[in-house]
Structure formats: structure tokens, C-alpha cells
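Retry 2 of 3 after timeout on previous attempt. Resubmitting C-alpha cells to design endpoint.
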């Protein structure tokens, strides 16, 4: 069974202000992530998924129609933990490996923003890194790259609960703030090297 304490924030609630409010951080982490964890625990009790780790649950339930609810909640636990780990207020310089792949930092950000703008409704934008190649892709709802054997190195949560308190309906502004002030590039680089 999983517990919210197993998924602590990698920063203090105040560390992202003014880009993300304490209220948004608390609501997003404690209520939304906490809700997915509680739902997942109920859904996997007394099933073959009960003894699996989170990634195993996602991979094994991704193509099991009878386990759609399990997949949705497990994937959202993973997606949210990954998103929180992507956040930080340190060095905002896009790493050379990424700028080289996209033709510059501005080009990377424009491509990322373009993919984010095309997300209709709730979803995620991901930077994946496989076979020394980057891809920016979007997933809808709870879908996640690991269900498709892709390696995520960065993600942005585009569900309304991620930004609405701070940005209301200005999702594009949230994407800009994320790209220009909220990414922990050390976490991204560490993921690339794993």
C-alpha cells in the first residue's frame, strides 16, 4: 500500500512563490495526489497489483481494460510525483544537450509551448529521452510515457488544479512561468543519466 508520506515534496511549500502559491502547492500535493493514492490503495487491495511497485502497476494495467481505474490512479500518482520533482527555483538555464537538440533554448521553449497549447482539456506535456534522442509529447488525462516504454525526463501538469488558483484561465501564462522559472534542471539532467 502507498502513503502520501512516501511521496514528499522535494522543496518547501514556500520555495516556489511567487511562481506558484503555497495554497496551490498544498492543494495539488495533499489533496489531489493524496486522493489518487487513497483511490489506488482501495482499487489494488486483494488484487494481483497489490504487491507490485508503482511502475509495475502502471505497465501491467496500461493495456488491461478491466484495470482502467487502477491504471488511471497509479499513473496519476507517478505523474504527480514526477511533476513535483521537476519543480525548483535554481538554475533556469536550459542544459546544452537540450538546446543542441532543439536548435537553442528559445526553440526548445517554443516547441514545448506549442505542444502544450494543443492539449485540449486535461493532460500533460513531457520531454522524453530515449536512445539519446529527445521528444516533446502530450498525453491526455492520466496517460504517461512509461506506459509506452518511453523515458520521461521533464513534465508539466496541465490539469486545472495545477494552475487555476494562481493563473485562472491563463494556462499559457502558467506554461511560460514553468519554462522560465520553475524547472529544476538538475532533476532533468539526473533523469537523462539514469
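Retry 2 succeeded. Sequence:
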Amino acid at each position: 500500500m502507498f502513503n502520501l508520506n512516501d511521496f514528499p515534496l522535494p522543496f518547501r511549500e514556500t520555495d516556489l512563490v511567487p511562481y506558484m502559491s503555497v495554497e496551490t502547492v498544498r492543494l495539488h500535493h495533499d489533496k489531489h495526489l493524496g486522493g489518487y493514492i487513497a483511490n489506488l490503495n482501495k482499487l489494488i487491495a486483494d488484487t494481483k497489483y497489490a504487491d507490485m511497485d508503482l511502475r509495475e502497476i502502471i505497465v501491467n494495467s496500461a493495456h488491461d481494460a478491466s484495470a482502467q481505474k487502477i491504471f488511471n490512479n497509479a499513473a496519476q500518482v507517478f505523474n504527480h510525483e514526477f511533476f513535483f520533482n521537476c519543480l525548483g527555483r535554481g538554475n533556469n538555464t536550459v542544459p546544452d544537450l537540450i538546446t543542441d537538440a532543439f536548435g537553442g533554448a528559445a526553440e526548445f521553449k517554443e516547441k514545448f509551448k506549442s505542444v502544450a497549447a494543443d492539449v485540449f482539456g486535461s493532460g500533460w506535456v513531457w520531454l522524453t529521452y530515449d536512445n539519446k534522442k529527445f521528444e516533446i509529447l502530450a498525453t491526455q488525462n492520466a496517460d504517461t510515457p512509461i506506459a509506452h516504454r518511453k523515458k520521461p525526463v521533464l513534465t508539466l501538469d496541465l490539469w486545472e488544479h495545477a494552475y487555476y488558483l494562481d493563473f485562472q484561465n491563463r494556462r499559457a501564462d502558467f506554461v511560460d512561468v514553468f519554462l522560465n522559472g520553475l524547472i529544476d534542471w538538475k532533476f532533468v539532467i539526473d533523469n537523462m543519466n539514469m
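Attempt log closed. Residues 20-86 form a domain with the Helix Hairpins fold (CATH 1.10.287.990).
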